[in-house]
Amino acid sequence: MKIQGLRPPLKSSLATMRVLSPVMFFSMVLLSIAVERPWNKFAGTDYFATPERGLYTLSLGLGGAFLAIAMVLCEFYLIMKSTAIVLMIGGVIKEMVTILVGVTAFGDVLNPVNVMGFCVVFLGVVMYK
What we know:
The protein is an all-alpha fold and 129 residues long. The protein folds into 3 domains: 1-36, no CATH class; 46-81; 83-129, no CATH class. Helices cover 77% and strands 0% of the residues. It contains 5 helices and no strands. Helix 4 (84-106) runs antiparallel to helix 5. It starts with 12 loop residues before the first helix and ends with a helix. One of its GO terms (cellular component) is membrane. It is found in: Membrane. It is a multi-pass membrane protein. InterPro entries: TPT_transporter. The chain crosses the membrane at residues 12-35, 55-78, 85-103, 109-128.
């Protein structure tokens, strides 16, 4: 199936995603099952030992998937309403927040070069705004 050959043509990124998502989902599931062989990896673990643990494991996976899809939809919306530069700035800020959470919550250590780079990036974002 050629996407360019669809009549009427797809008008937005969301429409393209709506058409491609089922095919991508099933191909990735089949490929990951063939490569990862989850029945071997989960054999000796507690992830699915009880129905409660299985539900907890599935809800963690589905929650992460929901957040990832929501983030992609927000990115599409942001690009439709503004420019790609704004999206890049948002991505830089997201990475900076991720670094800060890693340092404060998990005790990650930054060396002086990392701190200097963080400051340069932060100043670049502030000066752009």
